[in-house]
Amino acid sequence: MSDTNITPTAAGPGPLPRQVADTYVDELIALDPITGTYLGVKESNSKLPDLSPAGLDALAALARTTLARLDEAEARPGADSDVERRCARLLRERLTAELAVHDADEGLRAVGNLHTAPHAVREIFTVTPMDTDEDWAAIAERLRAVPGAYEGYRASLELGLERKLFAAPRPTATFIEQLTQWAGAEGGPGWYEEFAADGPQALRTDLDTAAKAATGAVVALRDWMRDVYAPAIEGAPEVVGRERYARLSRHFNGTDLDLDEAYAYGWAEYHRLLGEMRTEAEKILPGAATPWVALAHVDEHGAHIDGVDEVRQWLQDLMDEAIEALDGTHFELAERVRKVESRIAPPGGAAAPYYTGPSEDFSRPGRTWLPTMGETRFPVYDLVSTWYHEGVPGHHLQLAQWAHVAEDLSRYQATVGIVSANAEGWALYAERLMDELGFLTDPERRLGYLDAQMMRALRVIVDIGMHLELEIPADSPFHPGERWTPDLAQEFYGAHCSRPADFVESEMTRYLTIPGQAIGYKLGERAWLLGRENARRRHGDAFDAKAWHMAALSQGSLGLDDLVDELSAL
User: Fold this and answer.
1) Superkingdom of the source (predicted)?
2) If you placed Cys at 518, which of 14, 262, 279, 459 could pair as Cys (CB 3.0 to 4.6 Å)?
3) Distance CA 22, CA 566 (A)
4) Number of folded domains in the chain?
5) What is the Cα–Cα distance from 203 to 198, expressed in whole angstroms?
6) What is the three-class DSSP state of 302?
7) CA-based radius of gyration for the chain
């Protein structure tokens, strides 16, 4: 734990912004042990947060207290240094955005297929240490806390129903299906029981009892969601409208976006990428009617990996090879940043791959996770740029580097202060960087990369378009002049994406679950590219891309409000 005493002492007049930020992290961990486990705090591993309205209010109260402390800290001598100023701006922006979401009672209708509290409760077990009997004793205690956590979550949704704050029906239906999967087949073990089965024999009784109680809590929540919640919200809007969308997109992007300009940018990228995809598709399947016909051909006849264990190892090798090629040439990586693990995601989640960062002391390395969705055959074109995004040089290099330089920043900037659009923008920039550096010369892999870029442009179009119910432009090849609906968005997305129908379904549910998050990939990438171009122009022939990359990755989190300015000045 960092030394974050906020009491003025003889050594100085009081804490500066970085100390205030790190005190916030310490106090947040006390309220949210899931965050503590991600950071590697041992004391957190046996606990779960209070997900009830009282728990949500406690987090908001902490944010307000911290903002008051920050007001005082910013008035002190030394607060105007670059390191203090950058931390203060991030802390103020993040807490203000989070409070806006809380004060609008968004937490009372947080239901969906990912990034909800019940998902966080389940997923934290996959990164909790499990090397010793002591670790498993903590896991048993955390399992015993699952029923209380899920009851608190249900209490928040019940209050939401009382206030007529309803989740969207489609994500609710998907969440009920996921809970059913977590509960296990009729008479069979649930997910928590299967997880606990790997524990030591000495704790078998405790683990089994606690895991069965956790499964019982899953069943109880599923039944309530199905029998009470879903009927109560039947007919509720699937989309959130401009006011809610603006508030949520601020939270995920760290800026007040011009949503109409962003929507137009998504369309501009769509048209640009479509032209590039057609050129690349012609190399694979001459005369193909669309790039996705060529991708369907690659899906069936192109390079692929057979087997779940085999694809996990292949992805590990891909990341290891990228580290060897990039370290010393385009990046300078500390030894502990060079380690990243490939994992298979537990079943019952969303279809998209994801990354979990290292613990603060790197005792748990960064990890990429592949949801197999029951598949055993994996086309290569669909994996390469995705793992450049999730692993190296994408999420892993950024988030592990933040952890590596945390003492030079603040604990907050390197961990819980993360801005989604910054991180996702870097990861999409990383895909483009690998294309620029010549790692995607194979037509299959390059068309897969362009398809992944197109998917991010589609996100900007459909996420903003359907939630704001905007008009489809006159030059669109798809339903010009009509207003977006979720059904039209899914049809459009599916027609311009190589992914299977279940992935498209999961993606659309995701956009209805967390409006404003998915647009951050492309808008964040634009910010990173603009910052690099501005720095390149400023330095001219003296521009050093390797030095710029390392300086950029060592700044810690920034919202898009600040990102371009800070990158341009490097």
Assistant:
1) Bacteria
2) 459
3) 22
4) 1
5) 11
6) coil
7) 23
